[in-house]
């Protein structure tokens, strides 16, 4: 695919991402659960679909999603953004967007901007107006949502020695010290996730494992954990400091930590240094339908 076609595909995907007409009742878009100002989460403990049905999980951030090995909280097999885009669109366990296939295809064929962009994005397709192509376009847009402009990045990669506070620097030591914080054992690499699934003992007797979320922009994505059961970063740190709840299948890495009050406060400051506020206002990721109601629960 040529560079021009790729840019056109991303433009198309951005329009689709923000289009509430892709939902069954025309009230929600992908952006309803993935709001730019909240680092592409929704600020809810558990996501709510177009019918008002609450989900079992919170909405995960889409920032840097192109770098992830697995895309959901609990399904290691879901590794394709194109396939994942179809789940909220047509899934009914629970209902998310609640779209109807015939209505989606009709929209793709009749909306003037789609009539123009689908043939340009898929120039060799005999019929470019397909649901599979719509999913491919949404995935292409999602891959462009990249965040690498936090104070942490400016300090380590941009040479800005004043970007990170002394408290955050102390917190980084806690984060990377085995036997103290040791957070790096699961939150590793440039994107602060090992991509693996762990039983983090959120509730007593927990048996399920959930994917390690990225810590980038974590300050903006409260409430926390797969079920939104922890309200603040301070409470998250306290949960891990205590070694989690009692659970027979708890991850072996979870043990009570010898953290002081100062250690905990510094660790929170380090986590906040991973916040990239530029991604919240980047025009490339914003709503291209300014007059269209995207029902983003403001």
**Content of β-strand:** under 5%
Mean pLDDT: 94
Helix content: 25-40%
Could you name the CATH homologous superfamily of the largest domain?
Answer: Cytochrome c-like domain
- Roughly how many Å apart are the termini? 38 Å
CATH topology of the largest domain: Cytochrome Bc1 Complex, Chain D, domain 2
The tally of strands reads 2
CATH architecture of the largest domain: Orthogonal Bundle
CATH class of the largest domain, named: Mainly Alpha
How many structural domains can be distinguished in the coordinates?
2
Count the helices. How many?
10
The topology string of helices and strands comes to: HHHHHHHHEEHH
**What coarse outline follows from CA principal-axis ratios?**
globular
By secondary-structure content and strand pairing, the structural class works out as: mainly alpha
Largest sheet: 2 strands, antiparallel
What topology, given as strand order, has the largest sheet? 1-2
Residue windows where pLDDT falls under 50 for at least 5 positions: 293-298
Rg calculated over all Cα atoms? 20 Å
């Amino acid at each position: 695919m040529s560079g021009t076609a790729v840019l056109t595909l991303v433009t198309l995907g951005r329009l689709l991402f923000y289009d509430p007409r892709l939902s069954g009742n025309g009230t929600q878009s992908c952006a309803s659960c993935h709001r730019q100002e909240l680092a592409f989460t929704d600020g809810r403990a558990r996501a709510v679909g177009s019918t008002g049905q609450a989900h079992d999980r919170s909405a995960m951030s889409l920032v840097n999603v192109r770098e992830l090995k697995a895309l959901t909280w609990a399904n290691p097999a879901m590794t394709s953004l194109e396939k994942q885009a179809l789940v909220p669109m047509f899934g009914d366990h629970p209902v998310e967007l609640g779209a109807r296939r015939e209505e989606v295809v009709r929209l793709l064929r009749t909306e003037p901007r789609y009539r123009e962009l689908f043939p340009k994005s898929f120039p060799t397709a005999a019929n470019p107006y397909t649901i599979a192509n719509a999913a491919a376009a949404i995935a292409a847009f999602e891959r462009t949502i990249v965040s690498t402009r936090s104070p942490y990045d400016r300090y380590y990669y941009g040479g800005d020695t004043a970007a990170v506070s002394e408290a955050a620097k102390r917190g980084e030591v806690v984060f990377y010290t085995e036997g103290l914080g040791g957070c790096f054992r699961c939150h590793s690499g440039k994107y602060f996730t090992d991509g693996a699934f762990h039983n983090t003992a959120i509730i007593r007797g927990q048996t399920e494992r959930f994917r390690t979320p990225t810590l980038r922009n974590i300050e903006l994505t409260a409430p926390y954990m797969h079920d939104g059961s922890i309200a603040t970063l301070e409470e998250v740190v306290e949960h891990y400091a205590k070694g989690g709840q009692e659970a027979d299948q708890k991850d072996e890495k979870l043990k009570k930590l010898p953290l002081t009050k100062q250690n905990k406060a510094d660790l929170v400051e380090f986590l906040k240094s991973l916040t990239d506020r530029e991604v919240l206002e980047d025009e490339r990721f914003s709503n291209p339908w300014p007059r269209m109601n995207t029902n983003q629960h403001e």
